[in-house]
Imidazolonepropionase
Amino acid sequence: MSVLITNIGELLTSDPDGTTLRDAAVVFEGERISWIGPAAHAPAADESHDAGGRAGLPGWVDSHTHLVFAGDRTAEFEARMAGESYAAGGIAVTVDATRAAGDYDLTRLLLARVAEAAAGGTTYLETKTGYGLDVEQEARSARIAAGVADEVTFLGAHLVPRGEDADHYTDLVCGPMLDAVRPYVRWADVFCETGAFTAEQSRRVLSASAAAGLGLRVHGNQLGPGDGVALAVEFGAASVDHVNHLTDDDVEALAGTWAGFAARGEPGTVATCLPACDLSTRQPFPPARRLLGAGVQLAIASNCNPGTSFTSSMAFCVATAVLQMGLTVQEAVRAATFGGALALRRHTGDDEDGRRAVGSLAVGHRADLQLLDAPSATHLAYRPGMPLVHAVWRAGSRVR
Ligand code: NIG
């Protein structure tokens, strides 16, 4: 069945050229985009929807969340707002609650969070394990996540569990735990930070994960300068996430990974910014303008988790990136759509597994579109916090 969405006042395509169309229309054929262009020239379709001059853009691609958890960390948040600084140790509180939850409850909680994200315009979402931290619990989190999320990342190397030896635990992550999660995950990640995993331990996790055929991501340079970015670049990770504390060398190393993108379309290591987390942990924002100026591709993601960023609102993250990080609306929207797709290596289609590209609007890409109750995407930052989502299509189906 074909669906025509017409009379779109402003359409941000998030294509590599940053094309914005006025008075535009899009046609979906099943789950794919079959036509895009000026409304006046749109072909007929089985069904049509009049956007009434509203702004349209791709659905959000949220490339960094931690949604498989139980429990609550309001007290930790209150303490932080009263002046305490974030320490990764709070993760252990969520580990206890998650281990204690049954499969049914953990699944129900995850489904509710994904539904919340979808209501906010997210049409493609990654989530991680990382609150199980033993073989059985990490495998359970991965299995539950694989039934719900578009992409699953193994984050056994999130925190060394209380009372365990760090090197012994790293062995477990690199061996039995990796084997147990392997059927459910496409990615592996490591929290390379003081208080979590050292550079050497992180290197072991990345090596073992690469050898197991997983794509790599790194939590790096969140709470202070460190080795996360350098390791991500060394291992050809698809993204390094947080990037709050970067040296000149870090920026240069990331820029170097993008040298072949324009000519050969070969993506480098995406710098994923998590602005809602930065607000909640009172960290400096990443040097986004500097990264862009150096040629680094950015993603913006929600980092929805119970400790540092309990929101899945990509619109809030985009507004914060504009209001606080100095990005233009177009740059922020691109980072939250195409950038997320790049970070998940879903920016192009994959004929082998029949997957369609997400994160930008072009013929052949997955039909993921949101309409805002606003005449332009600028309203995302101009009216921060307002419920601007008017309609959402995911893979050609209206989900809101
Ligand atoms: O991305 N940095 C590590 N992991 C999460 C926080 C997890 C938590 O505190 O529960 C993050 O911010």
